[in-house]
Amino acid sequence: MPLLEVQSLETFYGKVAALRSVSFSVGEGQIVTLLGSNGAGKSTTLRAISGLIPTVAGKVTFCGEDITNLPAHSIVERGLVHLPEGRRIFKALSVIENLELGSYMLKDNKERQKRMDSVFERFPILGTRRKQLGGTLSGGEQQMLAIGRGLMSSPKLLLMDEPSMGIAPLIVKDITNIIKSLHSDGTTILLVEQNAKMALGLANYGYVLDNGSIVLEGDAKDLRKDEKVVKAYLGI
Amino acid sequence: MLALGGVCVFSFSEVVLQQLINGLILGSFYALVALGYSMVYGIIKLLNFAHGDIYMIGAFACLSVFGVISKEIPGLAGIGLSIAAAMVLAGIIGYLVQRVAYRPMLEAPRLSLLITAIGVSLVIYNTVMLMTNGQPLFFFSGIDNSAGFSFGNIRITYVQIFMLALSATTMLALSFFISRTMMGKAMRAIALDQDACRLMGINVNKIIGSTFIIGSMLAAIAGGMACVYYGNVQYNMGYTIGIKAFTSAVIGGIGSMPGAMLGGLLLGLLEAIGTQVMTSMGMSGSAWKDVFAFGILIVMLILRPNGLMGKTDVERM
Prior knowledge:
The complex is a heterodimer. Chain A is an alpha/beta fold. Chain A contains 10 helices and 10 strands. Chain A has a domain at 4-88 and 155-234: 3-Layer(aba) Sandwich (Rossmann fold). Chain A is globular, with a radius of gyration of 17 Å. Chain B is mainly alpha-helical. At the A-B interface, helix 2, strand 6 and helix 3 of A face helix 6 and helix 7 of B.
């Protein structure tokens, strides 16, 4: 049974269909990537899964449970964590406060501290800036904070939306390494990226979205060689 | 304003000091109401025009409860208990207003929400007017409002000390709540980015509801203080203080909680000093005090629309 299964998902923006019958699945322990050009519906798919926008039809199953149209906060509670596009950290709150809010539902303060320590262990730079306001961090650090904040709710599945966006090219490699290490620690990842080269380098399996529908899928290594994908997204 | 009847010779510094005390009391009133205004604005960008009416409800509730219990529990203890009861009632009404009138409008344009707030204000205002036949009710605290300490010609009454202590404690407790507790942090986070909060497991609607409850409770404390201080309660008492609290919030920077406290205190002080200045120039000072308040509002809106402690965006891309 896959960890996440999306069946015939449909959403609308006003009267325009944004997603048309999107189906895919993410198996436990995998990195799956969702590719596609701007406006193909990648972010919309993630937003529908995590409950930020309503779905009109279709079904989302997580750990065998139907989570379609549950409120976003109770989806997080089940271990499905969405790191939104553009990081969306709280710029006027400190690093510590950002992280604490990541574990909002946790009642146990000791456990919260433990998780925070492990975030600081993973991202030592955040530890040295723990009292600073989120908005004063560099782009790469903000991305680490966004990831750390997501890790605070100990996710089973991470939905990552464009983690390399707006990050200096040199730092993109760091982000790649972070994703690798999250994966090797046992986190399943659904990765949305415009940087298809990076995404296909990381993923086991990939789907290509175009105009709100899945048009292609396959093993990442096959997609890397697929002529259509190469032409459209790898720009070689 | 406190009337300083029967006093003949004041030195200049004594006058200033006395007005500072009076201004501080008035200011702590404004600050308590302004906090609710500012919290709600910060979190859903709504100017809650019904907030002054919640203050009025708080005052009526305090008066009614005290009327029942004052025989058994007289004095400050009874007043304290009545204010606590008023806080509960105001909290419930504040929550219901939010749940029934505002929540269905949260996705609507802000102007619709604003007009809803004006509607809510009219409903509460007119309901209480009908219930009380538009007549003021009188509050007999059984405490001598003029009893207190004197330092030379400067006078500070026990009631004033009680009010200052109550509002200072309340504001300290609120500051602690906002800066240290998870719910307080969530409130600040929601003011910044609601969707990001949802993605962290924060039940945004619940936090918005709690914000209204807390804001209404603060207004009820101010309403209870008004009972004791002014000795009478009327359906229209929330109108002016609502606008004054709005002014305080704008002075401090609307949405900022330290700003609301500072703005309230400043407005109280300016009114007190301004009234004194006009009086010493031979004019009716108290008739001018609203002119000061709204004059300041206009000046602030022109010179510093973000307020004294308004958002200074910390941003680095």
